[in-house]
Amino acid sequence: MDALVVERADALFPGSRGKGIQPRTMEVFDDLGVLDAIRAAGGDYPVGMIWQDGQRAGEHRMFDPVEATEDSPYTEPWMVPQWRTQEILFARLEELGGRVAVGREVVGLEQDAEGVTVRFASGPDARARYVVAADGGRSVVRRALGIAMTGETVDPNPTLVADLRITGLDRDNWHIFPPSGEGEGFLAICPLAGTEDFQAVARFPEGSTVDLSLDGIRKVVAVRSHLAPEDVTEVRWASDFRPQAALADRFRSGRVFLAGDAAHVHSPAGGQGLNTSVQDAYNLGWKLGAVLLGGAPAALLDTYEEERRPIAADMLGLSTSVHRGVTRRGEATRQLGLGYRESSLTEEARTAGVGRVRAGDRAPDAVVGGVRLFDAFRGPHWTLLALGREAPEVGDSVRLVRGPEQEAYGSGLFLVRPDGYVGWASDTLTGLAGYAGRVGGF
C-alpha cells in the first residue's frame, strides 16, 4: 500500500511541546518497534521542587508511582521531547519504506466516488483513495471540509512554553516557582530528559502580549525566579497559546479522516494530547490497511469515528479537569483503562470463566505457554488466544497462542485486534467465522 506523508514545513517540528509518553502509548510504540529508541531518548519524570524566595521549600509529586506488573509493564509516563519522538517515528517510517514530502503545503482538496485530489501551494496535485488530515488545531483540511469544532476556553490567560539553555539549576528536579508578591505569575522549568535543554512554562494575565525573544524570556525568568537574566543562555524554541478544549463535530467526511489536533484540541495538562493523537492513528491505520489490502468492507472505516470520538471527548474533559486542579494525574491519565466495549466491532459471548478483561478492553501482557503476549501481538495481524480452551489452527494470517487460564483474562477464546484490543471473546469457535466476515477476514 503506497502512502505519502506531506509536511507543510521544510523540516520536522523543533519543539518539546508534547513531552509526556503515557503507558498506553509506550505499548503502542512497543508494537511499532520503536520502544527501545524511545526509552534511550528519554527518562523518568523528575520530582517537582517548589522554590520560595530563592530557597527550596518542598517537593511536589505530579503523580503517585505505580509498580509495573506482568500485565502492565509500563505504568508511568516517560519523558521524551516531541521533536525527538518525531525523529524516531520518522526514522522507523523510512526503515519500513515510507517517505515524507516536506515543504508541501495543502491548500485544498476535492473528493469523488473513487478518491481524493489534494492541492498544494506549489507543485503537482496528489491523488489518493483516502486522506488522513493530521494538520493540527488550525487544520486547513478540516476547514475545507466545513467541519466545525465545538468547545470552550479552558483558561483565558496566555501561556508561554519554551525550550531553553539555562545555567544555575540542577537537572534532578522539575523547578516550580509559584506566584509571589514580587513576581508576575507561575513559572515552571523542567529539565528535558535526553537533552541539555529545559522546558519553561509561564502563565500571564489575560490580555497580555507574550514576548518570545531571548530578552523577553530572560526578563520573565529573572522576575519570577532567583535566576539572573544571563542564566538563560539560549532560546531553542518558543511558543505561546491560550488553552482551549474543542472537539470536531465529525471525524470523517467521505474519504477524508481527521486525526490528532485536527480532531481535538485541549489543555496540555495531564499529558493527553500527543498520546490520544498517536492512538487515533493506531486505530485508523489498521482499518485502512484492512480495507486497502485485505479486502475488508469499506464500512469498517466507519468504526474509526465511532470508537475514537467518545474517547477524545472524555480526554478533553479530563485534561480540563486536571488543568483546573480538580483531578489529579493518575490512573485515568495513563490511558490503560481506555477501550471499546460499546463498539460495533466488539462481541463478548462468554458465559463462564470471565476474568477482568472483556471484549473491547485492552489486551494485557502475560507469558502464555512460554510466549510473551506483547511479542505475539506485535505487528499488523490478528491474534487468537486459547486460554484453558482447545482451538484448532485458524489460518496463517492469525497468530495462535495456546495456554492455561490467565488471571486477567479468565478462560476462553480471545481474538485480539491489530491494535491490541480484544475484538471477540467466546467459550467456543462458534461465531468466529461470522465475526471474521464482518471485519473482512484475517
TrEMBL record:
Alphabetized, the UniProt keywords read: FAD, Flavoprotein
List residues of the FAD-binding domain: 2-316
Cofactor(s) needed for function: FAD
List the SUPFAM superfamilies hit by this protein, alphabetically.
FAD/NAD(P)-binding domain
Q: Which InterPro entries match?
A: FAD-bd, FAD/NAD-bd_sf, RIFMO-like
Q: Provide the leader sequence positions.
A: none
Q: Which domain of life is it from?
A: Bacteria
Name this polypeptide is given = FAD-dependent oxidoreductase
Please name the source species: Streptomyces plumbiresistens
Q: What is the lineage of its organism?
A: Bacteria, Bacillati, Actinomycetota, Actinomycetes, Kitasatosporales
